Amino acid sequence: MKTQADSRDGKSGLFRSSLDERPQDEFFAREGVDPLTHAFDRKLAVHAGFGGRPVLKEHRLHVMDGLLLRPRCGPSAIYVHVPFCESRCLYCGFFNRAYTPEESGRYTDGLLREIELWRGHPAFEQGPVHAVYIGGGTPTALAAPDLQRLLKHLTAALPLANDCEITVEGRIHHFNADKMAACLEGGANRFPIGVQTFDTELRQAMGRMAGRESVMAALDRLSGLDRAVVVIDLIYGFPGQTMAMWRRDIAEFLSLSLDGVDLYQLNVFKGSPLDKAVVRGDMPPAADLPGQARMFAEGVDLLSGARYRRLSMSHWGRTTRERNIYNHLMKGPSA
User: Fold this and answer.
1) Distance CA 273, CA 6 (A)
2) Which residue of 67, 76, 97, 322 has the fewest CB atoms within a 10 Å radius of its CB?
């Protein structure tokens, strides 16, 4: 579990960025070309913050002690990590370990003990918490009772703001009615679901288990409860994904009237199952950067035409119910 300050402590001198080591021309667009498709050769980073370096092992306890003693000021967010996935998607660069049923209770017990260790420290108890994000991995892989007790323990222990955004990240596979109810009873009010694509054939090629019909039905059931924000992720640039398929994904999303959507560019991580499959020739290459740019632009146009509000570079909301607080805090300036 970490607070916003854990990854943004510039005062300790132990968190250093590697951006200053890169050639200056990497930060400037190429001139005289189509700016949409050829201004840059590649992304500088997959996610914000990836340019930093981890704290050296011998300094970690010292840094953590210092962070715990610093009262939070300004808007705050807390992230809780659940590392398990029931299966690994071919494109995923974040897979940590496979889930087994016995892991659920053991890991939840460990999280609850850690929460108790943090109690009484200024960083944990001083100042309201505006967003709690349970991410992974796949948090919804946990058993329903463990999801509920984790959420209830967090909401009881933390000084939550009255309008605190409490997010549980998930995927449709095995996110059944019992788990949905457990999350809601535990206080969750936002669910980002990793759909990635509605196309059954493409989903299965990428290692996703549920087909289009079950994905649509589960999303409809979750949003139909009308007790929490429901947003999904869609990815553009998959091997074999055409513009027509991408337009259908956007259309399927719009048909569900969900609260929001993220449009993410496919990243082919070196050494990932997808990378290996492409190298072996078992799968065609992913879309190139110009192709991905055109798909993203098409998505922007379709969502704008449907009157979705753009909340960040890659995220849209349908109504003011979707606030996207955690992501804004994590990508904004540190308190």
Assistant:
1) 31
2) 97
Q: pLDDT tens across 90-122, in order?
A: 888 766 677 888 899 999 999 999 999 999 999
Asked if residues 39 and 298 have their Cβ atoms less than 8 Å apart, the reply is no
Write out the residue range of the structural domain in which residue 79 sits: 2-16+53-331
The Cα–Cα gap between 177 and 174 comes to 9
149: tokens are: 């007790």
Angstrom distance (rounded) from CA 170 to CA 29: 36
Burial (CB < 10 A; 0-12, 13-18, 19+), residue 68, is: middle
Q: Has residue 321 been placed in a domain? A: yes
Q: Which residue has the tokens 């119910």?
A: 321
Give the closest residue to 167 by CA, choosing from 333, 329, 334, 282.
Answer: 329
Q: Is 26 inside a domain boundary? A: no
DSSP H or E run through 110: helix 101-118
- Asked if residue 216 belongs to a domain, the reply is yes
pTM beyond 0.85: the answer is: yes
